[in-house]
């Protein structure tokens, strides 16, 4: 059943990156647009060559590696995902999940 809507996900520090990245692609496959906001960086910088200091970019790159981004279906999932640090002005009045 397709879901057409906007989900504003506020990721607190208690969530693990793996848990967040499992949930978001499933919601975007069903047609939802997901806005993710992370508060803290959940890694250590010496654990790999690809490391972004920005938590939103780190989340985006993790989901990018989990989905088939070279297919049309994977490209639409990435198009529906938007990740920010903080809350941008158009989304300050929306309910957060």
UniProtKB/TrEMBL annotation:
Entry superkingdom: Eukaryota
Keyword Ribonucleoprotein attached: yes
MF terms (GO), sorted A to Z: mRNA binding; structural constituent of ribosome
PROSITE patterns (UniProt xref): RIBOSOMAL_L13 (PS00783)
GO BP terms in the entry: negative regulation of translation; translation
Protein name in UniProt: 60S ribosomal protein L13a
Family listed: Belongs to the universal ribosomal protein uL13 family.
SUPFAM superfamilies linked: Ribosomal protein L13 (SSF52161)
UniProt GO cellular component terms: cytosolic large ribosomal subunit
Alphabetical keyword list: Ribonucleoprotein, Ribosomal protein
Source species: Dendrobium chrysotoxum
InterPro entries documented for this protein: Ribosomal_uL13 (IPR005822), Ribosomal_uL13_CS (IPR023563), Ribosomal_uL13_sf (IPR036899)
